[in-house]
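FAQ: What does a ligand-bound record look like?

Like this one, built around NAI:
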Amino acid sequence: MDLRSAVAESDLTTLRVHYDWRNDRFGLALSREWDGDTDFARYARVFAVDQVPCRQPRALGGEQARELIDQRGAAAALSQLESLMRAGRHEMIVLNVHRDLGICTCNNVHSSVLGLNNGHHAIRAGGIRRHAPTEPEHEVLVDGLNLGRAMSFKNAGARIPFGGCKMTVRCEPFALDDEARLGFVAYGIDSGCFFTGPDMGFSPELADALRARFTQNIVGGPGGAMGPTGTPTARGTFLAIQEAALVAWGGGLEGRTAAVQGLGAVGLPLAKLLAEAGMKIVAADTDEARLHAAKLGIGAIRVVAPEAILQHECDLLAPCAIGGVLDAAAIDQLRCRMVYGSANNQLAAVSQDDEIELAARLDGRGILYQPDWTHNTAGVMAGWEEYLHQGDARLERIEPHLVRVCEEGTRDLLAEHRRTGKTPTALAYAQVERVIYPEA
Ligand code: NAI
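The answer part, i.e. the structure of the complex:
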């Protein structure tokens, strides 16, 4: 049995698992925090986050909670979850199960360190992603925990004062006027002391509906003040590329060739910036319409097949489509001087150690690379700006920060790389680990 079912079948609502990674100790709590007929459409109107009506509250801690999970046949699922949390040094997960609404939210908290006492309600930031209820719980937990951990690094890299958390929501898609489900998701966000923005499976319009009715702790919807984040993300990566070129070939971009994989929300504006800087653009996209739009927007652009772009001879390879495109075999076939693109998790790594190893392989081939989270960070900066300033948020306000992180940050990182001979990836992780895992 999975944990969600163990909670629901015990007539409970919430499972919290805490992990103290300094002492390798787990804490467990099961509770009943609302009734089946509690009307979440009234959330944030009639009752607040810490006043959810519950006629028969109940709480079980420690061994009692573990025994109940055991009785329900979910001990193996709990033990798998604890192994994942131990491996990733995750602080906490909170599973909120609403049986009648058919929704289970999960706050995958990796680290709160950067957000502690930051002066805001939210001390963690990260996206919200929907999964189908039929997806196996273990897979959803792996996805959520990995993304939660990545957010700690991304926030730290962007130097914004929030810890890392990802929220997963297991449910069927629901309508923009489904107040009970919206209210329940808003409660999950607010009670997690976290602000979020829409990620895969969670429509941006739902973010606007949540903001309009239930919580200001979600940003990034189409009606938000910041607009789409693709263009500022492209700018951050472009600033890093200019710095990296000085190290990779000791000069500017003029006359050099860029191979861009993916011409979407970030890839297209990045290709435009590179073309404006005098680069020759070679590009691939699996979607013909995107290629057509790029030809109209950029002009001279050479198109190659999607399966040929990574091995194309060029100065800069810019992966701007999907993650995990560079495994050891792909790295061995690259014919470029540096890899800088917007895609998240470009290296096909399942752990940080793996990533550092693949980065060393790139370095061994004389290819300059630094982790994407050090420069594709304008999205989180835009989220931060919108969270702080709400309707008055402005893109111009993040510009100095973008320059500090993506341009000056890259310059400093690459100077250290040249001084120490260590890869930029190993150095970037070491820098951020000092912040995320103090006293480790
Ligand atoms: P998008 O969906 O707008 O664009 C992706 C493009 O890649 C699409 O045009 C798609 O057809 C193409 N594509 C997919 N598979 C491909 C393949 N195998 N070969 C060539 N092209 C392929 O997505 P978006 O927003 O531009 O994001 C791109 C990457 O950047 C993703 O990894 C995303 O996680 C990351 N990112 C996006 C941010 C944003 O603000 N949009 C912020 C930070 C990272």
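Follow-up question: can I read anything off the structure? Yes, for example: The pocket of NAI is lined by residues 229-230, 233, 261-267, 284-287, 290, 306, 320-323, 342-344, 376, 379 (CB under 6 Å).
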